[in-house]
Write a structure and sequence with these properties.
The protein has 344 residues and is α/β, with parallel strands linked by helices. It has one domain: Aldolase class I (TIM Barrel, Alpha-Beta Barrel). The protein contains eleven helices and 13 strands. The chain has an eleven-stranded mixed sheet. A two-stranded antiparallel ribbon has the order 1-2. Helix 1 packs across helix 10. Bound molecules: S-adenosylmethionine and iron/sulfur cluster.
């Protein structure tokens, strides 16, 4: 679990793949389309919400498309829309259509809480959305509502069914495990989706320390969750394709169901990191742990050409840090900034 070392003698390339000093190639872009959300998950934001970005600060669809096109021309093949909650951004199918038409993009996906997704599933599929990840931290309706501060798990289950019906598969379900809160839901989630083993993967994620949250108190190491599930379901490591994703996959032998574990902290994956993030207000974030990154939006609005945009993003990627130091010891640096602006 070491951090990568700089490649000796490497020089910043002027074209080709987006590489950094550590030799990592970046092919995956996460785009936060809004910092707003219709939920207030306890691990993500305070109950009163956040100081939302003024609308004029959000990238327009034209701006997102233009920036994304430069990324794709420089080797990005996969884009994921996230937030905040992407489904609360008006006109989302239009953005999906614009991005889906970029030559060279092979995968267009979205991460959603599912609350408002079902009625727009077909429109999004028609516009070119290929896959979704849905967050679901509990099946028990009152616990779900407590963790999301008002969410409705029935709507999320509807979203999952609607995605399947619209052909947006495979579906990945994300559960952030919190000590003393939803640990009891972990096995239930695996069991509930066993009948959908063919197209649905349940994944468990470690709680990450962001500025101001209480992750150090409620963090559960992924090894502990995996051990618990292994005892119950007899998990075996899977060699199913991970498509460059960070989840370690296991199979439940009795059902063939895949279960994933994502451990940004205790078994971090910085060494193989291939991702970049574009925040809702147009900052390029090369590592989740660092906040101070260039604003591509300001460049665009100041009249940058595509070549200038490319120079800015190449420089930022080249100078990407080795990895995060967001360990769980008291006093260690947390991930900087606000998750929903950055795009979790
Ligand atoms: N609103 C959408 C959703 O909830 O799926 C997309 C944005 S959300 C920020 C993206 C993912 O980040 C979700 O799966 C959520 O559970 C996860 N997340 C948010 N805060 C987190 C934290 N402190 N630690 C780990 N995962 C977190
Ligand atoms: Fe909203 Fe997603 Fe954050 Fe929950 S995790 S508050 S659904 S952005």
């Amino acid at each position: 679990m070491s951090l990568p070392l700089p490649v000796v003698g490497a020089v910043q390339p002027v074209d080709g793949a987006l590489v950094d000093r550590f030799g990592r190639r970046h092919t995956y872009l996460r785009v936060s389309v809004t910092d707003r959300c219709n939920y207030r998950c306890v691990y993500c934001m305070p109950k009163e919400g956040l100081d939302w970005l003024p609308r004029a600060d959000l990238l327009s669809f034209e701006e997102i498309e233009r920036i994304a096109a430069v990324f794709v021309r420089n080797g990005v093949t996969r884009i994921r829309l996230t937030g905040g909650e992407p489904t609360v951004r008006r006109g989302l199918p239009d953005l999906v259509k614009r991005l889906g038409a970029l030559p060279g993009l092979t995968d267009l996906a979205m991460t959603t809480n599912g609350h408002a997704f079902a009625p727009m599933a077909t429109r999004l599929a028609d516009a070119g959305l290929r896959r979704i990840n849905v967050s679901i931290d509990a099946l028990d309706p009152s616990l779900f509502s407590e963790l999301t501060r008002g969410g409705n798990v029935a709507k999320v289950l509807d979203a999952i069914a609607a995605a399947r019906a619209a052909g947006i598969v495979p579906i990945k379900l994300n559960c952030v495990v919190l000590r003393g809160r939803n640990e009891s839901e972990v096995a239930s989630l695996v069991e509930a989706f066993a009948p959908h083993a063919a197209d649905t993967v349940v994944r468990f994620i470690e709680y990450m320390p962001f500025d101001g949250n209480d992750a150090r108190r409620h963090h559960v190491p992924v090894a502990e969750i995996r051990e618990r599930l292994a005892q119950r379901f007899g998990l075996v490591p899977s060699d199913a394709p991970r498509h460059g994703g960070p989840a370690k996959l296991y199979t439940v032998p009795s059902t063939g169901q895949l279960v994933g574990f994502i451990s940004p902290i205790t078994e971090h994956f910085c060494e193989a990191c291939n991702r970049l993030r574009l925040s809702a207000d147009g900052h390029l974030r090369t590592c989740l742990s660092r906040d101070k990154m260039p604003s591509l939006r300001e460049g665009l609005r100041a009249g940058w050409t595509d070549a200038e945009l490319e120079t800015a993003l190449r420089g930022a990627v080249w100078n990407k840090v080795a990895g995060h130091e967001a360990h769980l010891v008291e006093g260690a640096r947390a991930f900087e900034g606000v998750m929903t602006r950055v795009g979790g």
